[in-house]
Sequence to fold (230 residues):
Amino acid sequence: MTNRYVFLYASAMVVVVALLLSGASTLLRPLQERNMRIEKMQNILAAINMPASRAEAEELFDRYITTAKIVNHLGEELPGDAFEVELQDEIRKDMAERQLPVYIANIDGETFYIVPLRGTGLWGPIWGYVGLESDMVTIAGANFDHASETPGLGAEIADRAFEEQFRGKRIFDEAGNFRPVRVVKGRAPAGDLYAVDGITGGTITSNGVTNMLRDGLEAYKKYFEKIKTS
Fold:
């Protein structure tokens, strides 16, 4: 067997494998995109304390999410499909150019507003959704996730026990000043409506959540204020 034959055979195999992988990727792309859409629906619903299985996510989303809109940092509504906006792309833009999705839910006559957030943890991106009650002050629920935080440490931001702490917390004080929730090292002071317990051994990730809440919610501040006074 000559070296030329080995080279040609190896080259042919590389081409065949590449074609097979490309074909498989093309065939699987619609399924992957559908799975991503369903997961996004689950996360949005989780921010208003409505856990949904993959099988029921679409039905519950269509039933309870009555409006999805895009706003800018001034609280002005923009054209477009909110569900198609990718926040990881938007946060790279200047604030004046950002598209900010808002999802509005109605559950038994009660209105909730859900907004997406994106930030940076210890090892990579972190993200989530925060649901607000109709007063635009009180947090109804929160849902967080991450790309690569340390299991047992920073990864605990995705645990329900951590997320549950945000229920009933506030993002504006009694005087109407913007005051987003912070994640404090150790335990938050008893009765503090603007703080939750940090993650033991996950200080950098905890700080990342604090920054994500501050920066992410501040982008919607004008919109929240408009709804509060409307």
